[in-house]
Predict the structure.
Amino acid sequence: MSGDAIVAAYVFILAIFVGFEVVSKVPSTLHTPLMSGANAIHGIVIVGAMLVASAIPGPLGTILGFLAVVLGTANVVGGFVVTDRMLAMFKQRPTRKTE
């Protein structure tokens, strides 16, 4: 492995640990805003996937870029669906009047 690959692996592993620690310390009442922020970040990831796909020549770059955009879009849509369901739990249900 080259030096750059080792550094990239270290950064990736460190990001996993830091992300786990940060998310595990968030109170449950703040998970919905956290997910909304994560969805915004995933939107940036989709733009990055498009830029990387356009920079790689040949069909392999196009295929990998398309796959990255599709999976990123599925992640964003799924995140917004889950966030919407979480917010629906906090809405008050109409009370029935008994006669």
User: Anything to note?
Assistant: Helices lie at 3-24, 31-55, 59-90. The longest helix spans residues 59-90. The two ends are 76 Å apart (CA to CA). Residues 28-90 form one domain.
